[in-house]
UniProtKB/TrEMBL annotation:
SUPFAM superfamilies referenced in this protein's UniProt entry, alphabetically: Acyl-CoA N-acyltransferases (Nat)
Superkingdom of origin: Bacteria
Gene Ontology MF annotations: acyltransferase activity, transferring groups other than amino-acyl groups
Pfam families: Acetyltransf_1
Gene source species: Mycolicibacterium agri
Keywords: Acyltransferase, Transferase
Protein name: GNAT family N-acetyltransferase
InterPro entries in the record: Acyl_CoA_acyltransferase, Bact_Acetyltransf, GNAT_dom
Gene3D superfamilies: 3.40.630.30
Residue ranges annotated for the N-acetyltransferase domain, each copy included: 23-174
Length: 174
């Protein structure tokens, strides 16, 4: 059966297409872990994320893939390469000199479970392999169980856990 989407490479000129897709990720974070509130607004999360993407896309090793159904963007993935030297990786794990980071993966709710996320990951990982990068990292919110299941099925393992204590967050009574 043919997939309902088509993928194409994107660039800086396509960033505005990503806003609703990133905001969907941000909203999923809020839904998955409301106890981590307060969250920044949708406008603020996109402002910061867009600036990050502009910076990353400037690197020749970065790949942005956008999935379309018709003319509508329904998902995307972005990966880039970073040096292991000077990172949190080098003092603990044996890896190559560079690691590929799956910076973002977003699939609109109505396309989750369709295989689109797996196809995006396949293509992002292939891109990294073609650049001689065979070690990968990605981040996921600990409460985003659907994303965690996808990543773990594909061989990703929990590696590093950040804990936070933000002044604006009410203290948990536990």
């Amino acid at each position: 059966m043919a997939t309902p989407w088509r993928l194409r490479t994107g660039g800086v000129d396509d960033l505005d297409l990503l806003e609703p897709l990133w905001v969907a990720v941000h909203q999923r974070h809020r839904e998955a872990m409301p106890e981590l509130a307060p969250y920044v607004s949708d406008a603020e999360t996109w402002r910061a994320r867009r600036a990050l993407y502009e910076q990353l896309i400037a690197s020749p090793d970065t790949l942005l893939l956008i999935a379309f159904v018709g003319e509508n963007a329904v998902g995307y993935g972005l990966t880039h390469v970073l040096p292991v030297a000077g990172s949190w990786i080098e003092d603990t794990w044996v890896t190559g000199d560079r690691v590929g980071e799956i910076e973002s993966l977003s699939v609109l709710p109505e396309y989750r479970g369709s295989g689109l996320g797996s196809e995006l990951l396949d293509r992002l990982e292939r891109h990294l392999h073609e650049r001689g990068v065979n070690d990968f990292i990605l981040g996921a919110l600990s409460g985003n169980s659907d994303a965690l299941r996808l990543y773990q099925r594909r061989g990703y393992q929990p590696t590093w856990l950040y804990l936070s204590k933000f002044a604006g967050r009410p203290r948990n009574s536990r």
